[in-house]
Amino acid sequence: MFSSKHLLGIKNLTKEDIQQVFEQADHFKEVLRRPIKKVPSLRDVTIANLFFENSTRTRISFELAEKRLSADTLNFSASSSSTKKGETLIDTVNNILAMKVDMVVMRHASPGACVFLSKHINASIVNAGDGTHEHPTQALLDAYSIREKLGSIEGKNILIVGDILHSRVALSNIFCLKKLGANVKLCSPPTLLPKYISSLGVEIEYNIEKALAWCDVANVLRIQLERQNVQYFPSLREYALYYGVNKERLDKLDKKIVIMHPGPINRGVEITSDVADGEHSIILDQVENGVAVRMAVLYLLNQVRVGEVTSVI
């Protein structure tokens, strides 16, 4: 059984937890290929999707995963809620839980918001991204996609290139890939690397050509201008010139590498369209796998939740 009733971050998971998610996702991916893409696994379970930040892919992916599992869903948008009137996070969630909600999927701008919430309410919490901290389901679907493409993750050379400093995806990916035995290298301007990053057991390469020549997989991250309150590099044009992943750079390699991107894509900045849409890319596979992986996470967490309820009774 899964080791926790919450998914707050990859850092808290065991390798066995991650393997359980993958095995369950394999099953649900078969379900999603059937004519009737629905199972009653979470029938009578109510899930609240609380998104305090804008989201497209993650929110739709979770909503679809919940519907495929036959769960009842409640969608909450901060822009049209009482949080605009000064209501606290706990009051907002407690009011929702009073409506007998079993699980909460939450995205929040503050790092640690999901951990904070898990200490104050009884429902299972799934972290859908908390500030610049973690985005565990994205890391799980990224690793699952690599496993699907290459057969395994252990021993593979995985490059993460882009805005590491502001990326919750990068941190979760590092934790996940290291637990699964991958070699992880980062490529980014020095100004976009956190000071603590070397303590996570990853290598750093500032030359994009050398980094691409080293890797089996390149996970390209978006430049998050909305989180940058100072200028970290001269211009987007210069960033693209020195760190952008383009077809010219890939054509120079003596091997084919896998290209990934968690989205949304800034085409022409961190990656060009001919690469994002090209033969190297598994970006749309990531999107497809996201539904199966999130179905697996919700299913496994509900097993723990039901087990705890049964043991109390």
Properties at a glance:
alpha/beta; four-stranded parallel beta sheet; 313 residues; 9 strands; single chain
Give a description of the structure:
- The protein is α/β, with parallel strands linked by helices and 313 residues long.
- The protein has helices at residues 15-32, 57-68, 89-97, 113-118, 136-150, 168-179, 208-214, 236-243, 247-251, 273-276, 283-312; strands spanning 46-51, 72-77, 103-108, 124-130, 157-161, 183-187, 203-204, 217-220, 258-260.
- Strands 7-6-5-8-9 form a 5-stranded parallel β-sheet, with helices on both faces.
- Helix 4 (113-118) links the parallel strand 3 and strand 4 (124-130).
- Helix 1 (15-32) crosses helix 11 (283-312) and helix 5 (136-150) packs across helix 11 (283-312).
- The longest helix has 30 residues, at 283-312.
- The two termini are 19 Å apart.
Tell me the overall shape. globular
Helical content (DSSP H or I, runs of 4+) = 40-55%
Round the mean pLDDT to the nearest integer and report it: 91
Q: Structural class, please?
A: alpha/beta
Q: Which spans have pLDDT < 50 for at least 5 consecutive residues?
A: none
For the largest beta sheet, what order do the strands appear in spatially?
7-6-5-8-9
Q: What order do the SSEs take from the amino end to the carboxyl end, as H and E?
A: HEHEHEHEHEHEEHEHHEHH
Major β-sheet, in short?
5 strands, parallel
Portion in beta strands:
5-15%
Oligomer type: single chain
